[in-house]
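Two proteins were folded this term; both appear here.
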Amino acid sequence: MVIQKGTIRLAKYIEIIDYISSESKNKNIKAGKKLPSIRELADKFNCSTVTVARAYKELELQHLIYSVPKSGYYLVSKHFNESEGDLSIDFSTVLSDMDIIPYDEFHHCIDHAMKIHKSDLFTYGDSQGLPALVSTIEKHLQDYQVFCKSSQIAITAGSQQAVNILTKLNFPNCKKNILVENPTYDRLLQNFKMHDMNVIGIDRNFNGIDMDKLEMIFREKDIKFFYTVPRFHNPLGSSYSMSEKKEILRLAQKYDVYIVEDDYLVDLDTSSSNDPIYSLDTEDRVIYLKTFSKILLPGLRIAAAVLPKFLMPSFLTFRQFSDIHTSTLSQGALDIYIKNGMFKMSKLRLKKTYADRMAHLKKICNDFEPSVLKANIPDTGFFLSLESKNPINFDKLLVALAKKGIIIKDARECFLTSDNGINLIKISISRTDKQKISAGMNEIYNYFSSSSAIV
């Protein structure tokens, strides 16, 4: 804060947030309407554009505004007054539902971890992870058919950190390029672009990937590793069959390519026979990633990476000189949470919730004409996707839906190239109940069935 003339003056970015809030409540800015540009607000508040960008980013994270590439920022909610109710239908967030995540139980575990690991908080932790948690996760992973030794497990601040480290390491195959499914997790793509990585894409749709194309890429494109989300793909929602997983692994072994398997939603799977690629691997070819943030508290930022023995030393060396280790307190709390059986109970609750939501979605989308929107709905998970027969004008779509209080992500961000030929809509139901799912999906369908829709 800035002290001025004996009074406390709010930081500029908070002043800007309050200003947008006031303008919204006074109806000077309406839902779906463009907000003042960053430059305009910088001049108005006599501050830098960086400060305005920070304010807008805060509002965007709260899903109160959204951005349209090359256009600007727009208001989502009709007002910011939470006491008047949440008017938005949020199909954009990947965060777990606040009403069903185990906050109270985990809070208890944090308090207990403070007592148990008090001395550990006054020193740097192990780069590999808290030994107690590593041992617990070794046993825990067996529930997913991932059998490994504790010496192969590294605890990271989320799966994305693990992927960041892997991109920088030298692999035994001495190759340089990274292969990803196209589309894929948008933040990972942005990260690759920021670090100027050599990334190649292979098209993935509702029916999976072309194995002949995969073989050609493995053979000709100098691929170091293939980053894949076999289960409940983000953004498609679909999963590979066991035969597809076996073929991917066979080709990786044949052409000396490693696989980075991101199994972020394994805990929601209702099938007991849908084993990961890692379970099929006999040649230390697969690196397995399991996050605990998605179905617990997103701010927890804990994931486990199961690595081949030859990668562990270089992985930990890089980790040590980047951020040293993951929070000891968070690791200790997760260790207690798993050991006490709380994780399994929470998983059952979440599994039922999301299976019910997807079943509800299937009933709704059964009434959709495939010529208007084709739906790809898994049995559970966070994501489903809708496919239009024509390329989508996202700039118009995002604004039109926001006017009705519906927030969706710009699916172009999930593709390697954001051209005008994308016809996919990404829907997340992680924080959307059945009533809002019904209202939001029907509004989306009506938009595309209307003659006024420009696609």
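Next, the second protein.
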Amino acid sequence: MPIEISNRHRVESFVTLDGSTIRELARPARTAARHQSLAEATLPAGRETVEHLHHESEEIYYFTAGRGRMRLGDDEEGVGAGDCVVIPPGTKHKLWAETDQDLVLLCACAPPYRDDDTELTEAPW
């Protein structure tokens, strides 16, 4: 099997239901990945996502740049580059980016991310 390389500069971005900008680096429809997906997410400085949950997917967020806050269930903590957070299925979560720089993270989902597995738990903007 040939090596499959996905490069963030060659992947088109889109905005998800929660309001973050996503570049899917690995997903079943486009790569050899079958049981998970990997995306780079960017939350612009001073912005926030819509609180939401995923019924089936477990997510792992690994923050690569910026600073912000994350709510997971009823807990809220500061996050920044080098931090890693596991989000169990069915857990409400939300991000805020600090005002001075974008918050950037890698998001691994298993099973792979699907819009129909996302439930918004607060009204969008």
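Residues 38 and 83 are 17 Å apart (CA to CA). The first strand starts at residue 14 and ends at 15. These notes refer to the second protein only.
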